[in-house]
Amino acid sequence: SLEGEDIKNAITNSREGGQERNTESNNYVANSSLRTVHQQLPIFSSSQLHSNYVDCVQFVGDLVLSKTTTNTIALWKPELKTSSHELPLIEKQNNIESSTTSISTSSKLCTNFLHLFDFECSECDVWYVRFGTDPECTKLAIGNKFGDIRVFNIGTRSYQTITNMNCNGTVRHVSFSPNSKSIIAVCDDSTLWKWDVEKKSQ
Fold first, then answer.
1. Band of residue 125 on the pLDDT scale cut at 50, 70, 90
2. DSSP string over the chain
3. With the CA atoms of 46, 51, 57 and 62 taken in that order, what torsion angle do they form, in degrees rounded to the nearest 10?
4. pTM for the complete prediction?
5. Is the Cβ–Cβ distance between 38 and 73 less than 8 Å?
6. Mean pLDDT, range 68-90, rounded to an integer
7. Between these two residues, 52 and 22, which has the higher pLDDT value?
8. Secondary structure letter of residue 96 according to DSSP
């Protein structure tokens, strides 16, 4: 689970560039490598939300955005167990990883979810067209087969479309700048585009 202390510490450590906190001095010291934390078994799995290949998934807080090849991006919330003792754990014993529970995995796996709503896309019903969100997770952007980009407001589901007559290849991936003012788009025709989100210009 992402709520486990080991996972939380590993995520924090990765953002600090491979530094570890010295508990005695409370200072960070350089660490040549990041310690890998193993989560052997999933805590959630479901095939009920999508009926086709899923090619992009991203957390938005405790919600999840996921896309398949059906011109929709779904926003949903998995129903996860909150008690850590209910989840299968992994521990190291003599450098051998083993499960600390012998209970069947299927009896522990969460499968229920709450489907909140869908973002309707256009002409992106092909494999590997990936969306992106801004750092604050308030905007959602996705390209399509004809070089257009839709930018959604996640809260209201309203959107604007960014286009340019010279951008007409399939947009495979989009990414927001750290300040959310620009979008980088990568296309099938080996072109890379930078867009001004507020001015809707290239």
1. confident
2. -TTSHHHHHHHHHHHTTSEEE-TTT--EEE-SSPPP----S-SB--SSS-SS-EEEEEEETTEEEEEESSSEEEEEEE-----GGGS--EEEETTEEEES--S-HHHH-B--EEEEEEEE-SS--SS--B-EE-TTS-EEEEE-TTS-EEEEETTT--EEEE--TT--S-EEEEEE-TTSSEEEEEETTS-EEEEETTTTB-
3. -40
4. 0.69
5. no
6. 73
7. 52
8. E
159: β partners: 152
The alpha-carbon radius of gyration of the chain (Å, integer) is 20
Nearest CA to 84 among 14, 167, 5, 143? 5
pLDDT digits (tens, 9 = 90+) for 136-171: 999 999 999 999 999 999 999 999 998 888 888 999
Which one has a higher pLDDT value, 123 or 81? 123
For residue 97, pLDDT beyond 80: no
Give the residue from 10, 19, 58 showing the smallest Cα distance to 38.
10
Which amino acid is present at 132?
G
- CA 17/CA 88 separation, integer angstroms: 30
Give the pLDDT confidence score for residue 5 in this predicted structure.
80
**Sheet of 171-176, strand order:** 171-176, 182-187, 192-196
Q: Which residue from 20, 38, 37, 42 is spatially nearest to 29, judged by alpha carbons?
A: 20
